[in-house]
């Protein structure tokens, strides 16, 4: 695992097409799991990113994908970033995690089997 304490340049990090910024208040867990599968189909890898309390959600998403044989863990990066409180008050440090997952060797095979099963159930 890599631990860093410098802030991340948001302009450079926000232009990645295969990045999913996870929030634990916006969408249900399996929305992110399914989105990550689609990103891996399209880009062969996906980067899951979260701040603060959403870190547990990102770890859960990564573990679901790994335990189902769909993904392999390529890289985990942790850092802290300075954020301003909403009222413009003092800066607050927030923990950040970024997990890079790649397609497993069986990804395409498993996704094809799941698609076939979905057709059979219709």
Compact summary:
With about 120 residues, the chain is of the alpha/beta class. Helix content is about 40%, strand content about 30%.
Q: Could you explain how this protein is built, in words?
A:
The structure is a single chain. Residues 1-14 have low confidence and may be disordered. This protein has a 5-stranded mixed sheet with strand order 1-4-5-3-2. It has helices at residues 10-13, 29-43, 55-67, 107-120; strands at 2-3, 19-21, 45-51, 71-84, 91-103. The radius of gyration is 16 Å and the shape is elongated. α2 packs across α3. It is of the alpha/beta class. β2, α2 (29-43) and β3 (45-51) form a beta-alpha-beta unit. The longest helix has 15 residues, at 29-43. 20% of the residues are buried.
What's the main sheet like?
5 strands, mixed
Helix content: 25-40%
Number of H- or I-type helical stretches = 4
Low-confidence stretches: 1-14
Strand order of the largest sheet: 1-4-5-3-2
Based on secondary structure, the structural category is alpha/beta
CA-based shape: elongated
Averaged pLDDT: 86
The assembly state of the depicted protein chains is single chain
State the order of secondary-structure elements, H for helix, E for strand: EHEHEHEEH
CA-atom Rg in angstroms: 16 Å
Task: Name the beta content range.
Answer: 25-35%
End-to-end Cα distance: 44 Å
How many E-type strands?
5
């Amino acid at each position: 695992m890599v631990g860093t304490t410098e802030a991340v340049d948001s302009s450079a990090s926000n232009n990645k097409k295969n990045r999913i910024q996870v929030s634990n208040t916006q969408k249900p867990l399996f929305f992110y799991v399914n989105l990550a599968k689609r990103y891996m189909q399209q880009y062969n890898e996906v980067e899951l990113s979260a701040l603060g309390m959403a870190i547990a959600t990102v770890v859960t998403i990564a573990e679901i994908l790994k335990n189902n044989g769909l993904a392999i863990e390529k890289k985990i990066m942790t850092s802290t970033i300075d954020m301003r409180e909403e009222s413009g008050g003092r800066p607050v440090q927030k923990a950040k995690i970024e997990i890079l997952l790649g397609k497993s060797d069986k990804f395409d095979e498993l996704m094809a089997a799941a698609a076939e099963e979905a057709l059979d159930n219709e």
